[in-house]
Amino acid sequence: xxxxxxxxxxxxxxxxxxxxxxxxxxxEEALDAVQTAVCKAxxxxxxxxxxxxxxxxxxxxxxxxxxxxxxxxxxxxxIPPEALDAGSYEDPLPSxxxxxxxxxxxxxxxxxxxxxxxxxxxxxxEISQVTGCNLSTxxxxxxxxxxxxxxxxxxxx
Length: 157
Prior knowledge:
This protein is mostly helical. Helix content is about 70%, strand content about 0%. InterPro entries: RNA_pol_sigma-70-like, RNA_pol_sigma-70_dom, RNA_pol_sigma70_r2, RNA_pol_sigma70_r4_t2, RNA_pol_sigma_r2, RNA_pol_sigma_r3/r4-like, WH-like_DNA-bd_sf. This is Sigma-70 family RNA polymerase sigma factor. GO terms for molecular function: DNA binding; sigma factor activity.
């Protein structure tokens, strides 16, 4: 199990960074969040009973690390792209930012579900495991979020 976890963590680190960045909007904080989540996963690997649930289990840890960082910060500080250091990790969000900004403007519980579904391609069942919500709640929040996004996009067209 340890080797499977290590392989997964190494293979998908860019995806983890992208998700963390979508929450934290800071290269350094996103990298720190991924590192913290990886350390927690390695420490708690014995708690994972079902190897098939590895992906949902790790995303659960990562989302909670990101939410903790946001709570500690008490507010989201957006950094202009020109202030970011050039490095191996670039801004993973669309260059125009309009859709990403609209997703960020949704309530956090709704935005999380949309990010996990469409940015990370998790199934509704996996999202349910990650968020700790029942499946019907996940479906409702996804529908609500998509409806709000559609309304805001249509109002500008």
